[in-house]
Amino acid sequence: MSIQVVFLWSDILLWLLCFAALVFGLRSMRVIHLARGWAKLARNPVATGTATVLAAFLLVGLLDSLHYREALPSVPDAEENAEIRYGVEVISVLDYLLHPLRTQHEKTYSAPFATRLYAMESVESPTGIARIYPRLAHGGAHLDDESDKMADILTRLMTGIFLALILSAVLFIVFRHTLRTKYPGFAWQGMLAALCGIALIFLPLFFLTDGYHALGTDKVGQDVLYQALKSVRTALIIGLVTTLVMLPIAVLLGIAAGYFRGWIDDIIQYIYTVLNSIPGVLLIAAAVLMMQVVIDTHPEWFSTAAERADLRLLALCLILGVTTWTSLARLLRGETLKLRELEYIEAARAFGVPSGRIIIRHILPNLMHIVIIALVMDFSALVLAEAVLSYVGIGVDPATTSFGTMINNARMELSREPAVWWSLAAAFSFMFVLVLAANLFADAVRDAFDPRFEHTGGTIKG
User: Fold this and answer.
1) Looking at the DSSP assignment, which residues form a beta bridge with residue 86?
2) pTM score
């Protein structure tokens, strides 16, 4: 099968950010105080466990960030050297791995593990027109007798749990005899617990989704589990790419305001005071609507719908980055004001060392713990911000699957009788796990890198 690789800007930025984070992590191991923070983080079971959960989400997002287009079927009478034409649908590696979930659509709503539609239809019968719940085209289609559904579900569930327990036992033996001996201080128990939990959830789901819609289907019959997994990439891009926009602005202006003081400090303080005085939702809404007008008036910029949705996603990241840098800049300004008064920095200025060299060699390295803590803690806030913005209709493109669009689509479904609850429950569950893991990891990072915190008790030193 011939394919054409598609490079979306969000894909490139996400991979570059992951590579940059890896390089930064390796280089920071050479800095003594940062290396101590990483070592303390590795000894924290909560940190290793939540980092494993976040790594699983990141793996899903990276698989969904490798896109391609499949070649269209060749015309029977076409020449051998005819030009290959590709379809307009942009597919990711995750779509390929989840091919059954992506392609097995139903007519409309169906509940989790259901064998029939959630809505009644009129059909002809020997006695006239009857109202029934028709069988699903794919969910439970392998069952000849619907009364065997519970036994079939239990068999698949127990098979998945049994394999997950075997995998957990193997991982326990491997971790105990390798990580415990080679890295005695490493908190491998947290990583093992996270991996076992992931296995106990997704191995049973693997067997259940082979014959059922484990989390049901939405209004157009699309699998809800597939939508939830596709939403992970959007959440990661919002949380990570926004950082790429916000970080340089916050670091540059925050350090400049604190180091140079005077009129430079006054101007920068005036800028972020004005930005903070404007309601964030109104500012973001105005910027998103203006960007949408630009996109709508230039359809020739995009060859596929995915490129159009990708531009709006990146525009949202840009807007969020421009409007959320103020808090980090204020923190860096305050810390820089304190650092510039230290003896060795005053000595460097007295010897005529240029300000740029002082900032790069002395100020910035002593601010990196604040930058790391702020970025990790802001990630969950940005994920929640996307959900809120998409809920009110000013978030990502409707063609982009995200937790916010899932919640927005589920809003009207809750008013049905009976209510369609599974779309909202799936989006909430995935987003809850992602945000909870990010928050717990952020707390561990704060305890490890913030010199004011003691690891035991989480109290601030006097």
Assistant:
1) 71
2) 0.85
